[in-house]
Amino acid sequence: MTYYFYPLLEDKFTDSSHRDTFRQILNSPKPAATENLLYLHIPYCHDMCRFCPFHVRVDKGSEIYDRYTEVLCKEMELVAKLPYVSDMSFKAVYFGGGSPSIFSVNNLRKIFAHLSKCFQIEPNAEISFEGEPKTLSDPARLDLLKEYNVKRISFGLQTYDERMRELFNIAATLQDVDNCTKNARERGFEDINVDMMYDLPGQDITALNYDLAHLKDHDFDSLDYYNLHYFAFPKKIKMGMKDGTIPSKPSQQMHFALQQQVRTTLKEMGYYDVADPIFAKKPQVCEYFRLIWGGGKGDHSAEMIALGSSARGYVNGYCYMNLGNTEQYLKTVEAGQLPLEKLSLSLPTPENRGAAFFVKFFEIDKAHEKAIQSIPQNVWDFWRQNGLIYETAQSWKLSEVGKLWTTNMMLDTFEPHQREAAMTSLGFVEDRPGVRTGSF
């Protein structure tokens, strides 16, 4: 399981006092300045990829997109007026989904214009835009993104293997990928990111090398190279893996071999291993990932304001999530109310958030002493004695062996209640084929 938010979300609001405490925070001035990220979620896709675990809706037709645009703009107004948010400035903005690129140019223009009107976006802010290659290749959409200073575009490529693309129900073609890349380059986009996956059904080193060779030909600026999670697959596919009509999940040994092959080959291709699981031609991770994971290398202070159905954020020690049911989200905001659905508990030791996310950056600065101390001593000793971490003058770093175990190491850093919540959520997804959870 990959964790993007910590502390973990509880099921709904735990009780009325918990909810009221969070609302009181939002309605009070922000106590201290932080680095901030603004996240906008557009949950619609033209088709449903069978592996996708996110909160997405396949709603075709402009009417629902027009309504969502109006409501998202209204939510911006509600959130921007909150005393906690009103003085915040944002170093990065991220449009995620879903596939934001399926919205029309007119709707996207409304959203960008309202964003600039409601929030203080820093002049050199990193604005990232997620899409799918078919619609993101549209010249008019790309021109609009350039007009509003989008610096980074990203889309899901996943694999060049046509058999796997058909199995996963990936609607965009490889020609769409080529068109999107070509049109974006022609307009001066210098940071094109793609999502890739390994650990595919039946995949071995030869099959992986096929994908890696094609990536070399395209020379993307950065890659998010995930291992495939199988819990979102529908029951039919899981049954096919059992009866042999669909290749099975690679073994644990093959998983590690594939992971090492990805890391070794991408380094040979000129990519830096900047974070887990992110590779880039520049030696630093993008601002989106740096800020969503607390600020980097043990920092825990960066905050994130969330907008849109099922969007997730982090403020003043609490993670929160907007209503995942899109219709409920629309009606709630139309009624002038904040669309909050879930909320985490706060951590007894706030710095433990930095401890949990340092694994993502492969390094923790020694200056973050409280974060280091929040990791159980027996865990720290085990890591050292087994060569998972090593000491430098200014920091502790993950070894190449440690990088193979980032998910386990991150879970090891969790405080007891958070570890219990993680085990509960893992049991939930394992028992429900095809479940759509969003990011944990």
From TrEMBL:
Pfam families (UniProt xref): Radical_SAM
Gene Ontology CC: cytoplasm
PROSITE patterns (alphabetical): RADICAL_SAM
Protein name: Heme chaperone HemW
Listed GO biological process terms: porphyrin-containing compound biosynthetic process
Ranges of residues in domain Radical SAM core: 30-268
Keywords: Iron, Iron-sulfur, Metal-binding, S-adenosyl-L-methionine
SMART domains found in the cross-reference section: Elp3 (SM00729)
TM region(s), chain numbering: none
Family matches, as InterPro entries: Aldolase_TIM (IPR013785), Coproporphyrinogen-III_oxidase (IPR034505), Elp3/MiaA/NifB-like_rSAM (IPR006638), rSAM (IPR007197), rSAM_sf (IPR058240)
GO molecular function, one term: metal ion binding
